[in-house]
Amino acid sequence: MINLLVVDSHPIIRKGLELLFVTSPHIQVVGSVGNGEAIFEFLKENRVDIILCEIDLPKLNGLTALRRLKKDFTDIKTIIFSSQPEEIYAINAIKAGADGYLSKTAEIVALKEAILKVYEGGTYLSDNMEEQVRRNKRINRSGPFYRKLSTREIEVLKLISSGRKNKEIAVELNINEKTVSTYKARLMKKLQVNNIVDLISRAKLIEL
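RESULT FIELD:
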């Protein structure tokens, strides 16, 4: 039996996934939590094989949690299950240590296939993303800017656009404030803007 932990800020989604696997002979939802920090509290007391995790989470975002998981819980596999566009986030999530990326628009059968494939040691991407990887295409949905950004830069950009201050970003990403300022300057240069307001406006394109 595969022990699955569901991580999502929306209670209805968490409950829906629990109900989805109630009768599954292979997959058991052993728990669900609503923020990134709660993942690690849960893991102190429970055995988990796979974590199904959203990117946009309170307290600790999904990508930051993923980095910590890969450092402290190397045996646990993670699938990013997100409403964020896979064209932007899928490859960056894999680079950050995820074992799979699945859009919330996917069919139920795809979700089950992803969990089983990752459990067996594979990496799961949608057929479309697999094809793009094979053809070595640039992952780009919102124009030429985002293909220039690293995983960490996208992570910082997401936190900036959510209203986090430099100190808060530094604490969440476990870096110093000077490094945050460096990332901001780098982002403004790459995204061709001159101030934080325009940077946040540009960041909103990721949500398209």
